[in-house]
Design goal:
By secondary structure, the protein is mostly beta strands. The chain has one domain (2-196). It has one helix at 146-154; strands at 2-5, 11-16, 25-29, 42-48, 55-61, 73-81, 92-93, 100-105, 122-130, 140-144, 162-166, 173-178, 190-196. Strands 3, 4, 5, 7, 8, 9, 11 and 12 form an 8-stranded antiparallel beta sheet that branches. β1 and β2 (11-16) form a beta hairpin.
Length: 198
C-alpha cells in the first residue's frame, strides 16, 4: 500500500496491490456451487457449455478503502488487471464477445466461505464495462472505475468490493486474469485512486 499526502492540502493518492495475506478475493463456480475459491491464483469470468448446464465462473474482490472518508471526492480511480500467465486458458470469445463487468457488491462476504450458493448481491449502478479482449493474453491496465469507487465511498454500509462477471453468461467465452494469490506480484490486481479528502 502507498498513500501520498500532498503537503497539507486535502489532495490524496492511494495505491493498493495486496498479496495473498492482505488481499481479499475469491473465485466461485456454478458447476460446484458449494466450493470455495479464496486461495485461487486466478481471477476469472467465464462460461463453458457442453451439452449440459453451463459452468459459469465469477470472481469477487474487495480492496481496503477504509482510509478514504465518506464524503471524499474521487477524482480518478484506475483498476489494473493482468492476464494469468499460469492459466491453462487464454481469453476466448468462441460464441460471442467476452465483454465483462465489474459491479459493486452490496452485501458482505468472506473470502474463505463464499461460494456460488451463498454469493453476495451486486448492483448494475455505475458498473464498469471491460471491453472484449483483442488477444488471448491481454492485460487490462488502468480501467476507469471512478464512478464505481465514488459509489463505494458514498455508500460504505452497502459496499463490499466488486463482482467480476461476463456481461453475457452463455456459450463459451472467458477472461482469465490473476488474483492477489498469484505467485507473480506484478500481476496481482491493483487500484490507484486520487481523491480530495473530506
Amino acid at each position: 500500500m502507498r498513500c501520498d499526502d500532498d503537503g497539507g492540502s486535502n489532495l490524496r493518492s492511494l495505491i493498493l496491490q495486496p498479496d495473498a495475506s492482505a488481499g481479499k478475493d475469491a473465485l466461485i463456480t456454478s458447476i460446484n456451487p458449494d466450493q470455495t475459491g479464496g486461495n485461487e491464483s486466478g481471477f476469472y469470468a467465464s462460461v463453458f457449455t457442453d451439452q449440459g448446464p453451463p459452468d459459469i465462473v465469477r470472481s469477487l474482490i474487495e480492496f481496503d478503502l477504509s482510509e478514504i472518508p465518506t464524503g471524499s471526492e474521487i477524482l480518478l480511480a484506475n483498476i489494473s488487471l493482468y492476464y494469468d500467465q499460469q492459466s491453462d486458458s487464454v481469453h476466448s470469445s468462441f460464441t460471442g464477445p467476452n465483454t465483462a463487468l465489474l459491479q459493486r457488491i452490496t452485501t458482505s462476504w468472506e473470502e474463505a466461505t463464499v461460494t456460488w450458493q451463498n454469493q453476495p448481491t451486486s448492483t448494475t449502478v455505475n458498473q464498469v464495462v471491460i471491453n472484449a479482449s483483442s488477444t488471448g493474453t491481454q492485460d487490462y491496465a488502468e480501467i476507469d472505475a471512478t464512478q464505481l469507487i465514488q459509489d463505494m465511498i458514498n455508500n460504505k454500509s452497502t459496499s463490499f468490493g466488486m463482482l467480476f462477471r461476463l456481461e453475457a453468461e452463455d456459450g463459451i467465452k472467458g477472461m482469465y486474469l490473476a488474483s492477489s494469490d498469484h505467485t507473480n506480484p506484478v500481476l496481482r490486481p491493483k487500484i490507484e485512486i486520487r481523491y480530495i479528502k473530506q
